Amino acid sequence: MKRRDFVKLSSLLSAGTVLPFTNLSAWQKDKVYQIGILGYGDRGSGLHQVLRQMPDKFVVKAICDDLPLRLENARKNYPNGIQFYQDFRKLLDQKDLDIILVATPLYLHFEHAKAVLDSGKHLFLEKTMVFNVDQAMELNALKKKFAKQVIQIGHQYRYSPLYFRVKEMIQNGWLGDVTQIEARWDRNNNWRRPVPNTELERKINWRMYREYSGGLVAELLSHQIDFIHWAFETRPSTIYGVGGIDHYKDGRETFDNVQVTLRYEDVGMVGNFGATCANQHEGYSFKIKGSQGMISLLTNEGIFYPEPDTKTHLEEVDGVSGATRLSWSNDKKGIKILDQPTKDGSYYALEDFYRCLTENELPHSNTINGGKTAITVALANQSIYTGKIMNWKPEFDLV
């Protein structure tokens, strides 16, 4: 790397938080979109809280969930101004809604997404986009039929200022040749929810059952997998996974311990993605290893650990009179990628959703890249449960 490149890298790492997308003009901000939330579990209710921070852009006018207990809790919190439904078809019939935000269990995503589009409303569909390969291909094909409606998929790392900057570092070659990805999302928790009666077991604990859930790969690791697709402009060529029900012997079907290895032949890289429900020490960890340095990421902070030669050159640049000082980590071995806190990634994703709605633009997280991530997750689960190596097929390269 030439000296001028070290100066550029130093300037990037010492810059403040910058939103990756341009602000809207004043006239565009006059529109406030009315939203209905379909699925009011942890994610749906959590996104409601984010939307409440954006009253000049969105207002929630309806909530739908087929579990009465969730609707009862929502009514207590929002006694006025919101309609409540147990049948999602009645939600879609509400004429004043512009958008439906779908946060239902994964196995329902395709059915609900298609119904929203058929109703003529815009769609914000939580990740993972859909449950299986065929659904991913079909929903992406439907975007042409519903071209006037905006469809955004909820992979929020594509909107985070931190992750956007990491992508910039990767694309500019400042990590050198990246050959290894190590990503984990661990917890010491069984993921099981209490149920008021046994008849609701599968409805409430749908994540435990293969008929409804993509397990740890879909619920957690899809975030990191999607970021790798975006940052390196790639997708896996081969996929191999292993796992088991190794800790919680409670009747579940989805594995509580998984490891997936993805080979990215086009960029010469191996990705290792793992999760366990039996140890929380590492929690969320995400390491991107290159010949000139490694990036270690959390959800809202990141540190660049330069290799020895790179570190020496950056310290020389850092010491030049007039140069912006780098913000070194506490151990003095790494450099903070952003020295300012960021908001919840969903906030940035919804802000840009607003931009796409007002300007009728294709979201950065859409059915093409969301579909490829959903296909990767589905293939990973096929490998985990069958023991077979899965290969990417040309028809999976959605356009």
Automatic annotation (TrEMBL):
Domain GFO/IDH/MocA-like oxidoreductase, first and last residues per copy: 165-295
One Pfam family matching this protein: GFO_IDH_MocA_C3
GO molecular function: nucleotide binding
Domain of life: Bacteria
Residue ranges of every copy of the Gfo/Idh/MocA-like oxidoreductase N-terminal domain listed in the record: 34-150
Name of the protein this chain belongs to: Putative dehydrogenase
Species name: Cecembia rubra
